[in-house]
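fold-stage: in
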Amino acid sequence: MMLIRAPGVYRPQADTRLLVRAYADAHIPPRRRVVDVCTGTGALAIAAARCAGSVTAVDISRTALTSAWFNCRRLGIDVELLHGDFRTVLPGRTFDVVVCNPPYVPCPHRDPPRGAARSWDAGADGRSVIDSLCRLAPELLSDTGTLLMVQSALSGVDSTLALLRDAGLKAATIARTTIPFGPVLRSRAAWLTRTARIRPGQRDEELVVIRADRPRQ
């Protein structure tokens, strides 16, 4: 699928494709209410819309939402677009499926990310968005709800699983792949090595998809 993206909007790549495949393999029942958090170009929202009852897409970037709007309109897909931080615009609503490709790259900079970096920089541990979504997930999910999220192993898979389980959800890793470092991680390899976030000489990262569900009664 060729998607239009404005400058500064995250380009769908390996993590997007891994999450789209995991969504397809998850056998989500049709006609579900889906929310795509950190939608970017709308790639996940578009993939979910093929069998969803309704799709909501959220992003903090107006430019990203403009790209998502254009892509959905071009493909004839009806998606509700919400601008803002998901932590403030979603509470009070529930969904059957939450999908998210969040920022997850560890970052040595203290200043809040700006521009395109907002789609990948996530604090020193790569968890500034992941932790928030894990804590909010029980409030967002319906009684039979499912969360599907992709992240890098560099940002702590075990921490994500522990947070979701502590919140009362069943959580497990359901897909994974290893890819070479992209330009951002290559530029930070020395810092990542110095702070023991990667092994000396390591130039690849593992991506994983985590699924969380409400336990069946």
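fold-stage: in (second)
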Amino acid sequence: MNTNDSVATSYTTLLEDSVHELEIKRSRFISYLYRVDSESAAREHIAALRKTHFDARHHCTAFILGPDRMTQRSNDDGEPSGTAGVPMLDALAKRELPDHSHLSDVLAVVVRYFGGIKLGAGGLVRAYSEAVSTALDQATLLRRERLRIFALPATHALAARYENELRAAGYQVEPTQWLAESALIHIGIADTPDASDQLHNHVATLTSGAGELRATTTRWVDLI
């Protein structure tokens, strides 16, 4: 599924990769969080960590991909079934965010160095869940939003004024396309019906009803 065809028009992901370590009953749980946009990218990070931590007993993983979170994977890597990968995935999937969006395009890898004390099934579930949750607490997140790009034809004489007034109104004005006879002003807005209606009303007022907006494409942007 093309990300531009997703139902979701925004989601939250990592600003940058991060690492955090916990010690629980002498076992070291080293949590790595990566921003990834494909399964192949996730598996490259996992393979690299296996080489870096070649002497660790477990390299447990979980990742969620896509605006609609259609791809979700987890792996216990030798821990008892359901005690590592699933609680890690739950920690990602059920993360509550201030803007009520969801978390995606995130890979979590927890490297465990066994400390000699068995934790039991319940203890492992809590440990792996806590390892990812505390790593997320330390991570810096950002919101991604899908923009709908509209084109507004204008004469050369009016294009600059339209650009300035649109920017002053808070719209994101993309690079204008200058043609031989006219110009095409490109405007990016949140890909929602309300935002589209507001833009059409604003352009109608700005151009005294003469402006004809045309939807062109969409693209995802990071809101930092």
